[in-house]
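It would be a great kindness if you could assist me with a short task in structural biology. I am sending you one protein, given as its amino acid sequence and as whole-number tokens for its backbone shapes. I would ask you to consider whether the tokens describe a fold that such a sequence might reasonably adopt. The full record is reproduced below for your convenience.
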Amino acid sequence: MILVNLLPHREAARKRRREAFFVALGIAVLIGGLVGGAVFSWYQAQISEQQGKNNFLTGEIKRLENQIKEIAGLQQEITALRARQNAVEELQGNRNLPVYLLAELVKQLPDGVYITTMKQDNQVVLISGVAQSNERVSELLRNLAKNSPWLTRPELIEITGRTMALTPRDQRRVSNFSMRVALRRATDVQKAADSVSAGKALTGVQPPASASAAAKS
């Protein structure tokens, strides 16, 4: 017996292909949506993680900025305290300058030189006196320039000659002089003594302790 299919098989085949296409398209759309959602979720997680890192870094930066401000304030306080300490030390060291000045003048005055007036203006001392000769004045200048740790840069202002009557029969020729000399601060004397000590230590020679002891006192 022969069977004949009178149904439109071509339309049925097209329908089946169309249905398969829509099913495949739906599956592709579903898979694409799932993949897109997964990628979107991954990027969102990365963004959230990066935002968390950024917030953490921002907080740390603010904390470090506050610490830097505190450190800057502490440094200013330390600088102010050091300045006060140096000022107090300088005052304590300079309070004995008149004593050192008189002691050095006694040491450095050669025979035949007498001081009549002395005036101190800050670190400059004006000295006036009488000498038996100009050579005595030159010797005083050399002593002040080379032999004194406290007095430096002596400068002769004026020297004049005159006749002094010791007795009605004894008249002598003397020199009136005036000079200025710089008086070192105690800190300067200590620095000079330390530099000399360092130089002597390098050469293996023991330095004299007079200047250092005077500066420390």
Summary: The beta strands are 113-121, 124-131, 151-165, 171-183. The longest strand covers residues 151-165. Helices lie at 9-94, 97-108, 134-146, 186-203, 210-216. The longest helix spans residues 9-94.
